Amino acid sequence: MMRYIRYAFLATLGILLVSVSLANRQMVTLSLLPEDLAHLLGVNFSLTLPLFLVVLGGIAAGVVIGFVWEWLREHKHRRTADVKHREVRKLEREVKSLKKKQNEGKDEVLAILDDAAA
């Protein structure tokens, strides 16, 4: 059921984006710097694109910047989780070796039963 809702949402979003794109096909000029500053610095870079590409590109750039920002912000949490994961694995190995020492000289079946009970 959720799959169909997701497909319906994506289809609606696609229709909306195509509609906005068709309604905003006018060409606009994007400049890197304001005209006066561009002449002063000698850098006059500009592009002529359809308006819908400018809008959708701005949205896409915002999403990418947000994801990168969040990924950088959560770095400390991922690092802490990694350290804890390594610590757990170390402790599991230590418990296994202690159980092995504890069960030395015992019958294998009794050792397995002791491990299962713990």
UniProtKB/TrEMBL annotation:
<feature type="transmembrane region" description="Helical">
    <location>
        <begin position="47"/>
        <end position="69"/>
    </location>
</feature>
<keyword id="KW-1003">Cell membrane</keyword>
<protein>
    <recommendedName>
        <fullName>Lipopolysaccharide assembly protein A domain-containing protein</fullName>
    </recommendedName>
</protein>
<feature type="domain" description="Lipopolysaccharide assembly protein A">
    <location>
        <begin position="24"/>
        <end position="95"/>
    </location>
</feature>
<dbReference type="Pfam" id="PF06305">
    <property type="entry name" value="LapA_dom"/>
</dbReference>
<keyword id="KW-0812">Transmembrane</keyword>
<keyword id="KW-0472">Membrane</keyword>
<feature type="coiled-coil region">
    <location>
        <begin position="81"/>
        <end position="108"/>
    </location>
</feature>
<dbReference type="GO" id="GO:0005886">
    <property type="term" value="C:plasma membrane"/>
</dbReference>
<keyword id="KW-0175">Coiled coil</keyword>
<dbReference type="InterPro" id="IPR010445">
    <property type="entry name" value="LapA_dom"/>
</dbReference>
<keyword id="KW-1133">Transmembrane helix</keyword>
